[in-house]
Each structure stands twice: as C-alpha cells, then as structure tokens.
Amino acid sequence: MVTVSLIISTYNWPAALDLCLKSVLLQSKLPDEVVIADDGSGKETKELIKKYQEIFPVPLTHVWHPDEGFQLAKIRNRAFAAATGEYLIQIDGDLILHNHFVKDHYTFKRKNCFVTASRVLLSPVTTKGLIDNNSIEIKKYSSGDRNFFNGIRFPAPILKQIVGRTYKTSMKNKYYVKGCNMAFWKKDLIKVNGYNETFTGWGREDSELAIRLMNANIHKRFLKLGGICYHLFHREASREMESRNTDMMEEASKKKFVFSPKGMNQYLLDY
Q: Is 25 helix (H, G, I), strand (E, B) or coil?
C-alpha cells in the first residue's frame, strides 16, 4: 500500500480551514497523515489546528513559518519535507472536498506522473451561507456557483484514465495546472527540488514546477470526473508580482530547467 500525505496550505482564514478539515474527516479513504502548510497565520489558526489534532484519526502536523509576505512556494516546500507519505496530494485550505476526493486521487496515481485536477467555484452567496453556518452542506446553500461540470464524478476508474491522457494536453495547455488540486510522488519532488522559492507573491509557481517536472520526463495527467473540490469565494490576491513570475516561468521552459536552485532540499534534514 502506498502511503499518502494530504498537504493543505493556509493563511489567516481559519473559518475556511475549519470547513476544509471537516471535509477531510468525511473522506471515504483517509490519507495516512495531513500536513498544514501555514504561511504565517496567527493565533486563531493555531488554536483551530490544535482542536482538530485532538480528534483527528490520522496524524495532523502543523508546519508554520513567520508571516513575511506571500511565500506559498516556501511553506509548501517545508510541508513536502515534513511529509512522511510516498504520494503527496496538495490542496488549499479554502476548499471543501468531495467525500471521495482522496480515494479518486489514490486510484488515479501512476508512477512517473504528476496530477492536476479541477475545482467548482462557489459564489459569494454560497460561501457566506457555509461560513455563517459552519457547514459543508453545499447543496443546502448553493446559489450562483460556477464551473458546474467540474463537480461531476464518474465512479468507474476507466473513463478517468482515458480522459486523463488527453485533457488539457494541447500546446496551449501544456503547462496548465491548478495548484489548489495537485498530486505528486515525493521522490519526484525531491528530484526537481520542489517549488522554486524565488517565486514570491501570487502567480505561476505551480506552472513553473510543472515545467521542471515535465523537463525531468515526469508526465502530467489531468484528473477529470473525480478529485472534486469546491472553492470558497474570496477576493483575489494581489497580482503585483505576476509579470516577474511569468518571466521566470517562461525561462524555465526555454532553458529546460529541472532542479530548483532554492527548494525543498533546505528542509529535508529538519524532519
């Protein structure tokens, strides 16, 4: 049996993380551990995680660093290093997971591949209803949600396998990924040294990682009709660094980079 770590990134939104962790508890297949990648949240998030650590059926680890601005690449690398699983499923803490989310990712995994998947975008109205009532009953509060087809699940694995080989594979979408819903073999992340921590601020760090994985002959597969998650509405992060990050992403593609010069190897001996 392959061991699985669920990596959840978060930053100062404990109400959303609360719903996310509720949905993890209802998984038909639990991960072997959960690792919270916390980009500098305050006391309220720490207390929430402590509460869940007392009731969680699998180990729940809180990996934290001080708040020094948007450093998602860095905290994910720390969480990757801390994870004990062979297979790492990466999500954001503002997602509510379908109850077969982990199971779908587990059955879809393949050696020498990494995976990306989709999300349903919840509206402000739906999000408010869920947050105000501390509920993960999406149908009860749903109104005006987007990307409805991303919420369709097909139980049999065969169709997922067929779609996974062809979906988003054109040149236009070659490096298309959703960082909030991805999965990797830990050994493959070590091979490319995880995220490039030169990326700060919002944008492109996920695609740059995908580029380096593909440059290392690790193939992208798209999990469709499974691995479903629901994204709580929030205002978008600042796009101030997007142009710079896009330039670095394009450089990784042009120069066929594989190994990040500043990545997860800094933390492997810490855990």
A: helix
Tokens at 82, concatenated? 């801390």
Q: Which domains does the chain have, with CATH numbers?
A: 4-270 (3.90.550.10)
| Residue 269: how many other CB atoms lie within 10 Å | 7
DSSP string, 112-159: TEEEEE--EE--HHHHHHHHHTT---HHHH--S-B-GGGG----SHHH
Q: Are 168 and 222 in contact (CB under 8 A)?
A: yes
- Asked whether 204 and 249 are in contact (CB, 8 A), the reply is yes
Task: Identify the bridge partners of residue 38 per DSSP, sorted by sequence position.
Answer: 10, 64
What average pLDDT is seen over the chain?
A: 94
- CB burial readout 130-145, b (16+ within 10 A) else e: bbeeeebebeebbeeb
Q: Tell me whether strands 87-92 and 229-231 are parallel, antiparallel or unpaired.
A: unpaired
Paired with 90 in beta bridges are 7, 182
Average pLDDT over residues 5-16: 98
pTM: 0.95
Q: Which amino acid is at 144?
A: G
Q: How far apart are CA 167 and CA 193, in angstroms?
A: 27
**Which residues 6+ apart lie within 8 Å of 86 measured at CB?**
2, 3, 4, 185, 186, 187
Mean pLDDT of 233-262: 89
Measure the CA–CA gap between 224 and 212, rounded to whole angstroms.
23
The C-alpha atoms of residue 182 and residue 119 are separated, in whole angstroms, by 11
